[in-house]
């Protein structure tokens, strides 16, 4: 059954028997035979075929969704069984929301590979909602997210506090304000540049809007980097993690505003689906929980700053 599922998934993803056969190192007739046997077992056609394309029909879409999950579970089962006798090694699929994934995770991966060089990590970056869905579908071993999560089927463990600041361009009028501390009302008429719905950073921004009792004009962008570039260009203000703005603040292209009631604090959490852990995952989770790793990252960043200046 596993072989049939793999062949079916490959044909569905490549939308071609010939391209699937090439990737699977099989002949095209063999691929066609697997699909015919699988459709016979399922009792219905799963693929619409023509001279130009091969596509999933309604039944095929259902089977595809569950086949992905079955293959993910089967692979995970094999890893766990192999892991009983082997040392820390093997693949580890990690998903992370943008802030942690782009600014913290690379350092964590470096520490992981330094201690466990046989681990083979793969990284997927998405917003909090997307990462949670991939973990739920067994397509990721572990996810690292920002903010809250409404999914009772996943284990959620907070492991690191994040600090978020409102930033403006260095040329913004508020960047050189003589007040020692601004109020939220000082920002009510500003254009806010925010992340998309489903993002942990967007969730935090909405909390700040509630805190300041305001509903400002917003511009919505899909990445932290685009938001930072837009703020630097003077398009508006934004709430971002200290990790995301560290370099720009050091260079002086972004300015953190001192706001009454801020910074805003939230938690980074990791999420997993299965209660069983490979040695690779267990070792990685232990590194996430180790506060000295994060302190070491901050220390290295601070030393690099002093060397530069």
Structure, described:
By secondary structure, the chain is an alpha/beta fold. It folds into 3 domains: 2-81, Winged helix-like DNA-binding domain superfamily/Winged helix DNA-binding domain (Arc Repressor Mutant, subunit A); 88-160 and 268-308, Periplasmic binding protein-like II (D-Maltodextrin-Binding Protein, domain 2, 3-Layer(aba) Sandwich), CATH 3.40.190.10; 162-266, Periplasmic binding protein-like II (D-Maltodextrin-Binding Protein, domain 2). 48% of the residues lie in helices and 21% in strands. The protein has 12 helices and 11 strands. Helix 1 packs across helix 2 (17-24), helix 1 crosses helix 3 and helix 1 packs across helix 4 (58-83). The longest helix has 26 residues, at 58-83. 30% of the residues are buried. The mean pLDDT is 88.
Q: Name the helicity range.
A: 40-55%
The CATH topology of the largest domain:
D-Maltodextrin-Binding Protein, domain 2
Strand proportion, as a percent range, falls in 15-25%
Number of helical segments with 4 or more residues? 12
The CATH architecture term of the largest domain is 3-Layer(aba) Sandwich
Structural class by sheet pairing and helices: alpha/beta
The biggest sheet amounts to: 7 strands, mixed
pLDDT averaged residue by residue: 88
Shape: elongated
Tell me the name of the CATH class of the largest domain: Alpha Beta
Task: Tell me the Rg in angstroms.
Answer: 24 Å
How many distinct folded domains?
3
**Poorly predicted residue ranges:** none
């Amino acid at each position: 059954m596993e072989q049939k599922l793999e062949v079916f998934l490959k044909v569905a993803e490549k939308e071609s028997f010939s391209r699937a056969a090439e990737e699977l190192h099989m002949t095209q007739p063999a691929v066609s035979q697997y699909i015919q046997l699988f459709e016979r077992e399922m009792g219905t056609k799963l693929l619409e075929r023509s001279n130009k394309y091969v596509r999933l029909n309604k039944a095929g879409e259902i089977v595809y969704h569950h086949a992905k999950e079955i293959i993910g579970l089967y692979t995970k089962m094999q890893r766990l069984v192999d892991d009983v006798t082997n040392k820390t090694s093997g693949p580890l699929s990690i998903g992370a929301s943008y802030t942690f994934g782009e600014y913290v995770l690379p350092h964590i991966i470096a520490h992981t590979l330094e201690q466990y060089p046989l681990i083979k990590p793969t990284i997927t970056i998405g917003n909090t909602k997307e990462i949670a869905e991939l973990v739920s579908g067994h397509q990721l071993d572990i996810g690292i997210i920002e903010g809250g999560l409404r999914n009772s089927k996943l284990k959620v463990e907070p492991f690191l506090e994040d600090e978020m600041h409102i930033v403006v361009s260095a040329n913004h009028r508020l960047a050189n304000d003589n007040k020692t501390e601004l109020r939220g009302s000082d920002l009510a008429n500003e254009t806010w540049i925010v992340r998309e719905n489903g993002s942990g950073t967007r969730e935090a921004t909405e909390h700040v809007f509630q805190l300041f009792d305001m509903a400002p004009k917003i511009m919505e962008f899909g990445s932290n980097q685009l938001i930072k570039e837009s703020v630097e260009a003077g398009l508006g203000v934004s709430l971002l993690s200290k990790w995301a703005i560290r370099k720009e603040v050091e260079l002086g292209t972004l300015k953190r505003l001192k706001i009454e009631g801020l910074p805003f604090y939230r938690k980074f959490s990791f999420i997993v689906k299965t209660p069983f852990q490979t040695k690779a995952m267990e070792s990685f989770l232990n590194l996430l929980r180790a506060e000295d790793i994060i302190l070491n990252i901050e220390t290295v960043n601070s030393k690099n700053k002093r060397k530069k200046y």
